[in-house]
Specification:
This protein has 395 residues and is α+β, with helices and mostly antiparallel strands. The chain contains 12 helices and 16 strands.
Length: 395
């Protein structure tokens, strides 16, 4: 779905969206496994809509860091949420795009007549990612061996280039001439907007409380509204000597889950369920794996062209902030209005639980569109391996 006219799709609606809070790495949600974070969201969607679990034809959950999670994480979440035994569940792994690709796959299933109602999104616990002893299968008679961080290896490392995605982003920074100050300024804005959103309770309607050790986790961790350009400028480069990307202007490692309930519009109407938004179209673009940041702009450009929309026609862009440099590049290349791009902050402040972010960002977008009475919104992100996925929703 790259070029040409948008498909003549069935009218597919988003009935509700729910997410957990963002938990920092080894933070408030670190004792909760990814399937259980997903289960909390699945339960909330049922409770908020009254849709009987037996009416849900398919559940798709993204999950990118799968080492040690156990067999079919999406199915584990379905079982833990007490959905019927015959509920079909699929786990989707397309790196950062996993959660949003689950949603687009749900839309495809409904469009194809294979489902009337589906739940899709993602779940991730980066805190529970194990370290791997890759040489132990055959054993080592003597000598040292290396521990491999599954969190990095499975989600943040380009195998073909044998490089961290942060290092590949540094190459994009050089190609496009994006300086450190522009990245830090964007990071400052993200933190301030996210902190304001958390403080004002804007996210309260979308967050599902998660019980951890007899307490409820309801607040996003991460935003630092009191940071400053001076503080951000003092942080060392993370990926190369003399580089521009730092822990302050890159997305935070995080835990969380988010999902939406989708349905054929007629099936929703039959059950008296009013939609929050309609799925209009989506686009996926891939290019050289080192150019995943550029792919985000390609995909957004393609999506707007396919639907005969200008950048100014979209009221709210919820674009994952894998790196501030990437978001600055997309903003400047396409001319996205500053006030419409991640107006509630983004992953630089709140965190990027890799496979869950698509479900989380879609939830945030549709709630914001209802609250602000917006006509169009776009949600999307880069995908490891050189790709990006974007979805257009309308009201």
């Amino acid at each position: 779905m790259v070029a040409g006219e948008p498909p003549d799709m069935t009218d597919i609606v988003i009935i509700e969206g729910a997410r957990t809070a963002h938990g920092e790495l080894l933070g408030s949600l670190s004792d909760v496994r990814a399937p259980d974070l997903g289960a909390a969201v699945l339960e909330a969607l049922h409770d908020r809509t009254g849709v009987v679990e037996s009416e849900i034809d398919w559940v798709g959950l993204g999950n990118a860091v799968q080492a040690g999670v156990g067999q079919v994480p999406a199915r584990q979440a379905v079982v833990a949420a007490d959905y019927p035994d015959d509920t079909a569940a699929t786990t989707i792994n397309e790196a950062s795009g996993s959660g949003l690709r689950a949603i687009t796959l749900a839309a495809d299933r409904i469009d194809a007549g294979r489902a009337d109602i589906a739940v899709a999104g993602g779940t991730e616990s980066m805190s529970n990612a194990p370290y791997l002893l890759r040489e132990m299968r055959e054993g080592r008679p003597h000598g040292d061996t290396d521990l491999v961080d599954a969190m990095v290896h499975d989600a943040l490392w380009d195998v073909g280039y044998d490089a961290h995605m942060g290092e590949l982003t540094e190459e994009m920074v050089e190609r496009e001439g994006i300086d450190r100050t522009a990245q830090d300024r964007y990071a400052l804005r993200s933190n301030r907007r996210a902190a304001e959103a958390v403080e004002s309770g804007v996210f309260d309607e979308e967050i599902v409380p998660v019980e951890v050790d007899d307490r409820l986790v309801t607040d996003d961790e991460g935003p630092r509204g009191d940071t400053s350009l001076e503080r951000l400028a003092s942080l060392p480069a993370a990926f190369r000597e003399g580089g521009t990307i730092t822990p302050g202007n890159a997305s935070k490692l995080a835990d969380g889950a988010g999902a939406v309930l989708l349905a054929d519009a007629e099936a929703a109407a039959d059950r008296g369920l009013g939609p929050m938004a309609h799925v209009e179209d989506y686009a996926v673009v891939y290019r050289d794996p080192a150019e995943f940041s550029e792919a985000v702009a390609d995909t957004l450009e393609s999506l707007l062209e396919r639907n005969d929309l200008d950048v100014a026609d979209v009221d709210h862009y919820e674009v994952n902030e894998a790196f501030a440099a990437q978001t600055v590049y997309v903003r400047d290349r396409l001319g996205v209005p500053e006030e419409r791009l991640n107006p509630l902050g983004g992953a630089v402040a709140l965190g990027h639980p890799i496979g869950a972010s698509g479900g989380i960002l879609t939830t945030t977008l549709v709630h914001a569109m209802v609250r602000e009475d917006h006509d169009y919104g776009v949600v999307g992100m880069s995908v490891g391996g050189g790709g990006a996925v974007m979805m257009l929703v309308g009201r």
